Amino acid sequence: MDLKKYLAEKAALVNNGLKSLLAKEDEYPQSLHKAMHYSLFAGGKRIRPVLVLAASEAVGGSIEHALNAACAFECIHTYSLIHDDLPAIDNDDLRRGRPTCHKVFGEAAAILSGDALLTAAFEILAATPGVDRGLIVKAILELSKASGSTGMIGGQMVDIESEGKDISFPALEYIHIHKTGELILAAVRCGAVLGGADDGKLKLISRYGKSIGLAFQIADDILDVEGSTEVTGKPVGGDQKKGKATYPSLIGLEESKKRARELVELAIESLKGFDAKADPLREIARYIAVRDK
User: If you average pLDDT over residues 69-93, what whole number do you get?
Assistant: First the structure.
């Protein structure tokens, strides 16, 4: 399959969905909505929302039933980036090749735009049309758990507390699995749930999600060492400067690459019982290990 075409088509669906579901940029208060749109439509791979759609397709569900969830995941992801970039956390000036939200709109507007996107995510997901309400509640629970103190936010907290310290490998895995992996796992689980997956398929697709979630963050660690600012759109080498715990810093670059490849193989193996409708998930797993941004 042509993964580049698939990603572009699904990203376009998500972008159109976001534009129709969120308050317009010129809606009052314009300063808030401009900041939200600035970060939300700054580019990006849309990997998490595409995974929602691909997982739904893989279990025989429809794109239409999963689109609101896909948009909700992008809102959560973008809010987390806006807050990560703030001076109190990572203090980054560049994101996706242009100044970060707080650099353009100020810290207060950046904080509030992140808050608004977080809130909008659950409004969008709750308003999913044409799907059994029980399944929508399950999807909301998945996204809530993955985003909260025992998911993404918990991982970010431990990441901050670990800066400049020597930490154990299990602590590093905790950070990576929770800071990045939980939201990716929830994306494929939500897509599968809304697509009507049975327990057996949900278990297999969860195994896939766990593997690619960790692989994705390891690949990010590698890119911070080997990547290019011109390609990634953000400063390279920031992890080392901030004393962040990463796979290359603990086990070395080559071993990190090997671990990422192993996780991709595990992810693909998890989909052995799925037919060709799961090919996008397979190709996305392969892409994660070799991406350059």
Answer: 96
Residue 268 is part of which domain span? 3-290
CA dihedral 168, 173, 174, 179 (to 10 degrees): 130
Tell me the CA distances in angstroms from 246 to 67, 174, 277, one per residue in order: 33, 11, 34
161-209 tens-digit pLDDT: 999 999 999 999 999 999 999 999 999 999 999 999 999 999 999 999 9
User: Taking the model in full, what pTM does it have?
Assistant: 0.94
Query: Which residues does 234 contact at the CB level (< 8 Å), separation at least 6?
Result: 92, 94, 95, 96, 97
Number of compact structural domains in the chain: 1
**Both structure tokens of 59:** 């279990």
Average pLDDT over residues 32-58: 96
Cβ atoms of 39 and 113 closer than 8 Å? yes
Place of tokens 């569900």: 61
Q: Nearest CA to 42 among 113, 97, 104?
A: 97
Tell me the three-class secondary structure of the chain, residue by residue. CCHHHHHHHHHHHHHHHHHHHCCCCCCCCHHHHHHHHHHHCCCCCCHHHHHHHHHHHHCCCCHHHHHHHHHHHHHHHHHHHHHHCCCCCCCCCEECCEECHHHHHCHHHHHHHHHHHHHHHHHHHHCCCCCCHHHHHHHHHHHHHHHCCCCHHHHHHHHHHCCCCCCCHHHHHHHHHHHHHHHHHHHHHHHHHHCCCCHHHHHHHHHHHHHHHHHHHHHHHHHHHHCCHHHHCCCCCHHHHHCCCCHHHHHCHHHHHHHHHHHHHHHHHHCCCCCHHHHHHHHHHHHHHHCCC
pLDDT at residue number 1: 85
Q: What is the CATH number of the domain that holds 86?
A: 1.10.600.10
Give the percent of the chain with pLDDT over 70.
96
- In the beta sheet, which residues pair with residue 95? 98
